[in-house]
């Protein structure tokens, strides 16, 4: 082993115990820096809320984490050791990073339960016969996910007949079917009623008891209800980070985001 490598192996790494570690990440589109020297660290089991104006780079950050977009520079590590910049989208998904896009992608003409069944079957095919579950285990898993996402009483409804909020929860249910360690969720409560928004905050809080979550959202009532550390992005970098009260009192955050 070269001496330099030995030293690196022996040195304590600041990212070792983290779940997600971004440092110095930069991504330009036609010379425009959408992500500009971004550093962000998520601990295992943490839920983080990401806020910031349109164009701040929130979605691009998620694209980089999930392998949809390659950064020009910087480090992106999962679970301390895995360099995500060296893997493609499918590989990153199978490592346990699940993503929910803003636009629902459920099968409208299928029932809630069938949508979930398909999602569970899809995740199973990745691991093949190796982790084949018994039918009763699968039913229990389905029941657990439906309970977690407040959809048990709607299990036989067509997805098309769900409320907007319930459709979003079904998306989260299908994400949970992949059994991800980390969930990335983009604007889950846009268009939801106040009651659905509050329920979604509780739902994500429960999910975060056993998984890590990064949630992008503009709804400040929702972010407050989450009660987690907040990162405000602006021009592709972290503008402020900390408890919501501190971040929302930061004059720079007020100027670029809250004072709109
Ligand atoms: N594929 C792309 N090609 C060119 N520009 C892009 C691309 N993706 C994002 N951008 C630009 O990068 C900036 C950040 O976008 P985005 O990450 O979508 O911001 P946010 O999600 O915070 O609103 C925006 O100015 C956007 O126009
Ligand atoms: Mg976005």
Write structural notes for this entry.
The protein has 260 residues and is α/β, with parallel strands linked by helices. The protein has helices spanning 3-10, 58-65, 89-94, 112-127, 135-148, 164-176, 194-207, 220-226, 244-249, 251-258; strands at residues 18-29, 32-43, 47-51, 73-78, 82-83, 97-100, 182-186, 212-216, 230-234, 237-242. It has a domain at 108-178. The chain is 38% helix and 24% strand. Helix 4 runs parallel beside helix 6 (164-176) and helix 7 packs parallel to helix 8 (220-226). It is globular and about 50 Å long. The site of adenosine-5'-diphosphate (ADP) has 10 residues, from helix 2.
Structural class: alpha/beta
Radius of gyration: 19 Å
Hetero groups? adenosine-5'-diphosphate, magnesium ion
Residue ranges: pLDDT <50 for 5 or more in a row? none
- Outline the biggest β-sheet: 6 strands, mixed
Count every helix, treating DSSP H or I runs of 4 or more residues as helices.
10
What share of the residues lie within helices?
25-40%
Strand order of the largest sheet: 6-7-8-3-9-10
The helix/strand series, from N terminus to C terminus, equals HEEEHEEHEHHHEHEHEEHH
User: Roughly what fraction of the amino acids lie in strands?
Assistant: 15-25%
**Mean pLDDT value:** 91
Sum up the overall morphology in one term.
globular
Total beta strand runs: 10
Distance between the termini: 56 Å
GO molecular function, one term: ATP hydrolysis activity
Protein name: Urea ABC transporter ATP-binding protein UrtD
Domain ABC transporter: 20-260
Pfam families: ABC_tran, BCA_ABC_TP_C
């Amino acid at each position: 082993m070269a001496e330099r490598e030995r030293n690196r192996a022996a040195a304590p790494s600041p990212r070792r115990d983290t779940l997600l570690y971004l440092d110095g990440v930069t991504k330009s589109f036609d010379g425009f820096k959408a992500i500009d020297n971004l550093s962000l660290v998520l601990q295992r089991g943490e839920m983080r809320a990401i806020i910031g104006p349109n164009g701040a780079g929130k979605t691009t950050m998620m694209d980089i984490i999930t392998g949809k977009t390659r950064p020009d520079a910087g480090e992106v590590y999962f679970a301390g050791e895995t360099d995500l910049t060296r893997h493609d989208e499918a590989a990153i998904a199978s490592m346990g990073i699940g993503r929910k896009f803003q636009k629902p992608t459920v099968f409208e003409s299928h029932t809630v339960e069938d949508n979930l069944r398909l999602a569970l079957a899809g995740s199973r095919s990745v691991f093949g016969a190796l982790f084949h579950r018994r039918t009763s285990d699968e039913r229990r898993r389905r029941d657990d996910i439906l309970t977690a996402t407040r959809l048990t009483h709607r299990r036989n409804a067509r997805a098309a007949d769900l409320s907007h909020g319930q459709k979003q929860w079904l998306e989260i249910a299908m994400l949970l079917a992949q059994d991800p360690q980390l969930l990335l969720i983009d604007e889950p409560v846009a268009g939801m009623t106040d009651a659905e928004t509050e329920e979604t905050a509780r739902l994500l809080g429960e999910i975060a008891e056993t998984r890590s979550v990064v949630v992008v959202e503009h709804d400040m009532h929702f972010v407050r209800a989450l009660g987690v550390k907040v990162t405000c992005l602006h021009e592709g970098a972290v503008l402020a980070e900390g408890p919501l009260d501190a971040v929302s009192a930061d004059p720079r955050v007020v100027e670029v985001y809250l004072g709109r």
